[in-house]
Amino acid sequence: MPDLQRQNDGFRLDPPIYYPPTSSHKGGSREGISPSYPFYTSPPTYNIDTPPYPFTKEDADSARASAAVAAQIGAETKTESNSPRPVPAITLSNKIHVVGFDPHARFVAHALAADPKLPPVQMLTHNPIPMKAWGQEGRAVSIHDSNGHPISSREILCPDYVSRRYKSLGYQPILDNIIISTAARAAFPTLYALRKRIDRRTTICLLEPGLGLMEMLNEEVFGVPALRPNYVICHSSHKLARHSYYHYSIRHIPGKLLLHAVPRNDEDEDLDSATSQLLGNQHTRHMIKLLSATSDLNAVGVSWSRLLLQKLPDMIFQSLADTLSAILDCNFNLIRRNKNAMRLWENMLAETIHIISSLPEFQDHRKKLRFLHERQFATMLRVRLERQGAEYSQWVADVRMGREPPVQFINGYFVRRAQEVGVDHRDNSLAISMLKARVESRRKMHEIPFKLVPEYDDY
Question: What does DSSP assign to residue 225?
Answer without folding.
Answer: G
